[in-house]
Structures are given as structure tokens and as C-alpha cells.
Fold this protein.
Amino acid sequence: MKRTDVTDLILVAKLAKGMKWADLAQAINLSKEWTTAALLGQMTLDAAQATTIGKLLDLPAEAIAALQIVPYKGSLPTTVPTDPLIYRFYELISVYGTSIKELIHEEFGDGIMSAIDFSMDISRVADPKGDRVKIVLNGKFLPYKTY
């Protein structure tokens, strides 16, 4: 069973059971953001987490085992994403990426924001002109070393 097959099983079972990502996250005591990434094939679950998810979604043993294998990370099927929501993030980085980079370097020096020592929070912000999406990315700064 390929990891993409497991993702398909998860999506179908989640829908059939009327569950939300937050429900699954709560079951394994992790954030909805990390749990969603894991169940979409981008993170690794430990045995207890995989077993809990497997029981909740009635996954076969082979799928539960696959959730514990370190995945090949990177979920976009094309260089330029075609999904409208994901494309907007691509557009956002295309337009603001150099500004973000410049401001991080000005504030912290030459380095990167970690995607490993990282957290993310997605929430809804009510607005009379239409609700807004609030995304907070929080990554550790890692300076480049000289040697």
C-alpha cells in the first residue's frame, strides 16, 4: 500500500464518519495543523498515534503501519500549484518572499526560519466585510555558521 493510498483511505473515512481534523488531532493530543499534515502524508506518527487514528477511522493494519514510515516530504504535484487556494500561497511568496527574506535578515542576520522546529496556527477571524483567515507561522531562526 502506497502512502497516497493511505491518505485516500483517511479522507474517505473522515468524511464517512463526519469527523474534523481537530477531532483526530484531539484523539492524539496534537495540533490540528500538525495532525492534518501527518494524515495527508507529510509527517510520521508513532505507533500509539497511528493505532489511535487507525481505530477511529477503521483503517487496515497495513495503513496503520504506513503512517509510521518517514514520508518523502513535499506534497505539491506540480512546480506551480494549480489548486486555487495553494496557488495563492505561491503568489504570496512570489510577491512578498523577497520582502520577508529581507526583513528576517535585517532582524536576525543571515539564516533561515526552520520548518522542523516549527508550529503553525490557522484560525478564523470574524470581520463584517467577510471573515478572514489568520495564519501564524512560528519557526526557530537558524543562523548560517562560519567555519
Observations:
- The chain has two domains: 3-66, 84-143.
- The longest strand covers residues 111-125.
- The longest helix spans residues 84-108.
